[in-house]
Write a structure and sequence with these properties.
The protein contains 13 helices and 15 strands. By secondary structure, the chain is of the alpha/beta class. A hairpin with a 3-residue loop joins strand 7 and strand 8. 50% of the residues are buried.
């Protein structure tokens, strides 16, 4: 039995296929190991071409054509099931390699046009299909396959609280980036696999931490604006969501009080949102950075400030490790983002946002806060809407049990930096 099974699903379209080949070549430079099996599936640039699947190791590529495959959830499930059947292992990693756009899509299937595509083209000079696997569909994949220790996104913009909450308990850990990832560089697969094959007895949390550290070292001294985080997909996710729920309630209360007085709190919150750290998709902001901006602009709101600190503490405990480069573009990235559309006239919340577990008001009232601040709705009307639309309780979820903030405990100390990148 192997210690580790690494399953890499490469869903890139015609603009990413050359980079997928580079990844496979990197993996082939690592010494063979009877303790670590690396299996890859490469979906071609054209839908009429055959998909490749097989094992890759030192100097060899055993990938074979398996026919023209329809790009759907069943394709990933079939890949994972087949890999797990052929290569028994103590621990399993599923890597999804492609374009990404946070909760809105894991770019594995159908064509989408959005702000992320524009920024990808600006950064890399590439064009081509962006493909869409909804995060809720990915949860179905993990439900079917089970026993995944780490789900890793070598894709842009996937480190979001909405994604982590949707996938909680479907794997032990999630590795993802808040920002864009350079297509021509991506993850350092050769270094990552060398580290694992040298120490195959490492446990999933150690592998997650090692992935962040190795990624950090590979971009040492480079100009790229990059981030990467390893998140726990266990009770810490529920606690983070509970903290954000408390923050949402405090924000709604502050807006309601202010609307009956001078109305300035809305303006301060909008200003805080505009100055928070944002990323390749301008609708995604760093939740901790937003809390910092709130505390800076509304110091006379004790409950609001206390809940903002509660979020900071809960998010810190969510991580195994996170890193960001020294680029000013990501200087205030703290590891996890949240959906917060720009507040402009006639702005609306994406309808599909309501399909997420995170948008269930029973567990988190962030969606109610967005309706008030983004869409300009009345607090009282939104509270009635939330009471009427609470969905069925989620099994084994602890987040609904914490709706009143308490004095937050002191944050855990930061881990020492291991390179010029800022590691926490």
């Amino acid at each position: 039995m192997n210690d580790w099974l690494i399953m890499v699903f490469l869903g890139g379209g015609k603009d990413l296929t050359p980079f997928a080949q580079n990844l496979l070549e990197e993996a082939m430079r690592v010494e063979s190991s009877d303790r670590v099996a690396v299996i890859a599936e490469l979906h071609p640039a054209l839908a009429t071409e055959e998909t490749l699947r097989g094992r890759i190791f030192k100097g060899k590529n055993e990938m074979r054509k398996i026919g023209v495959r329809k790009d759907d959830v069943a394709a990933i499930i079939d890949f994972v099931d087949d890999s797990m059947e052929m290569y028994k292992a103590r621990h399993r990693v599923l890597v999804l390699w492609d374009h990404g756009n946070g909760w809105q899509n894991v770019d594995v299937f159908e064509e989408v046009v959005d702000a992320t595509d524009i920024r990808r083209q600006q950064q890399h000079g590439t064009t081509g299909p962006s493909m869409n696997l909804a995060v809720k569909d990915l949860r179905d994949v993990l439900d079917e396959t089970r026993d995944i220790a780490v789900v890793a996104f070598d894709a842009c913009l996937m480190s979001m609280i909405e994604v982590a909450f949707q996938l909680r308990d479907r794997a032990q850990f999630m590795v993802a980036s808040q920002h864009l990832l350079p297509a021509e560089r991506g993850w350092p697969y050769e270094a990552l696999l060398r580290t694992l094959t040298a120490n195959p007895r490492m446990e999933p949390e150690e592998l997650t931490r090692s992935t962040i550290d190795t990624f950090s070292g590979s971009y040492n001294g480079e100009d790229d604006a990059v981030t990467l985080a390893g998140l726990r997909l266990s009770a810490e996710v529920d606690r983070a969501v509970a903290a954000i729920d408390s923050l949402s309630a405090a924000l709604l209360a502050a807006i309601h009080t202010s609307d009956h007085a001078d109305g300035t709190v809305r303006d301060e919150i909008i200003d805080a949102r505009q100055h928070a750290q944002s990323f390749g998709n301008p609708e995604y902001i760093d939740i901790v950075s937003f809390c910092d901006e709130i505390r800076k602009r509304l110091p006379d709101q004790p409950w609001l400030n206390r809940t903002a600190e509660l979020v900071r503490v809960a998010i810190a405990r969510l991580f195994v490790r996170h890193t960001r480069s020294n680029s000013a573009i990501v200087s205030r990235a703290n590891g996890v983002s949240i959906y917060f559309p720009n507040v402009i006239p006639e702005a609306t919340i994406a309808a599909s946002y309501g399909d997420l577990d995170f948008a269930n008001p029973l567990y988190c009232r962030w969606i109610g806060f967005l309706k008030v601040i983004v869409e300009g709705q009345n607090v009282h009307d939104v509270e009635k809407w939330m009471a009427a639309t609470q969905k069925t309780p989620i099994p084994n979820c602890d987040c609904a049990s914490v709706h009143s903030p308490s004095d937050p405990p002191p944050p855990p100390p930061n881990a020492p930096s291991r390179s010029p990148l800022l590691i926490h």
